[in-house]
Amino acid sequence: MEHQQNDAALLEEAGAIIRNGGLVAFPTETVYGLGGDAMNPSASQKIYAAKGRPSDNPLIVHIWDYSQLEEIAAELPPEAKKLSDAFWPGPMTLIVPKNDKIPYETTGGLDTVAVRMPSHEVAREFIRVSGCMIAAPSANTSGRPSPTTADHVWQDLNGKIDAIIDGGAVDIGLESTIVDISEDVPTILRPGYITKAMLEEVVGEVRIDPGIISENEHVRPKAPGMRYKHYAPKGDLTIINGAQDNVVAYINEASAKAVAEGKTVGIIATEETEALYRTGEVLTIGSRDDEDSIAHNLYGILRSFDALGVEIIYSESFSTPRIGQAIMNRLFKAAGHHMIDV
Ligand code: TXA
Ligand code: MG
Hints:
This protein folds into two domains: 2-212, Alpha-Beta Complex (DHBP synthase); 236-341, Threonylcarbamoyl-AMP synthase, C-terminal domain (Rossmann fold), CATH 3.40.50.11030. α7 (196-203) links the parallel β10 (187-190) and β11 (207-208). The protein has eleven helices and 16 strands. The strands form two sheets. It has an eleven-stranded mixed beta sheet, with helices on both faces. Strands 14-13-15-12-16 form a five-stranded parallel beta sheet, sandwiched between helices. 47% of the residues are buried. α1 (8-19) packs across α5 and α10 runs parallel beside α11 (324-334). The protein has helices spanning 8-19, 41-51, 66-72, 78-87, 121-130, 150-157, 196-203, 210-213, 244-260, 291-308, 324-334, and strands at 2-4, 24-26, 33-37, 60-62, 92-97, 112-116, 134-136, 163-165, 177-180, 187-190, 207-208, 236-241, 265-269, 281-284, 312-316, 339-341. The protein is an alpha/beta fold and 342 residues long. The structure holds threonylcarbamoyladenylate and magnesium ion. The site of threonylcarbamoyladenylate has 28 residues, from β5 and β6. Threonylcarbamoyladenylate binds at residues 28, 30-31, 33, 57-60, 93, 95, 107, 110, 112-114, 116, 136-138, 175-176, 178, 189, 222-226.
């Protein structure tokens, strides 16, 4: 496997790997994807194998032109055109009824297909020169945080895939918003950078899948991938929620106690608070004035704490105005829903 730069010849080479049924990891504006030919059942099976992912968890088909959506959808509700005009290329995935062109290996046996047109220039060019639609989940080992750099992909998949296109760090850092338009009311199956309010401006009423917000474990999320036990850091992560002074005081006290007991502690801080913590490995996620920075750094920070091997992790809470829901959805899962209000 090569760690590649992305000039035209190398993208052409990567495209040939896809046409021949191989796997290539590539950058998108959200996270890195692990791509294979969406029409080739054996490529999809290889993707599941490389990630160690259950094969009933469907893949997202990446396209670069709207006509490709029309080519694989059984029917398109009016929201398809409206939402794609508003948010494609970009960090939104649409769930639509599939036709026979996309194999069930790619959709995990479902009669719907997830489709996304990424905005990252390298991703677009890669899909175009491959001549294929590219099925791609996030390019991490199942159960680890999604990769936001080529190095993260390398850590997880080195030796298991044919190539990595290195496009540097991604922009957003959280996976796309998934919007199911295969039923009556458009429904968010996974929150992301494109928010409910943004979607509602374009199509009116939008719902949030009860399965992703309910505390009741019997209400199952509709997206299979949102049901699986998700990434949990090696250290025991707790979110501390409240006014800044209370949060800092709580974390300082709890950390001092843990350190006195001989434990190693990590703290997820912000630029506003980093200087206020007195013990432990303090990693700064970003600034509260810039919620995009928090989304951008979240997965990398969680990987860093795994690498440091800390036993206990405290994180501040980030219910920021716009993408706070997406950030907290990921952080809650990583913490096994363990949050303390102070
Ligand atoms: O930003 C992203 O979406 C990234 C980049 C690479 O594009 N991809 C990504 O893929 O996050 P993945 O496989 O990690 O997550 C796809 C999610 C899973 O939760 C899966 O269950 C859900 O989409 N999904 C895919 N097809 C579906 C379908 N037909 N119905 C419901 N959920 C679906
Ligand atoms: Mg994933």
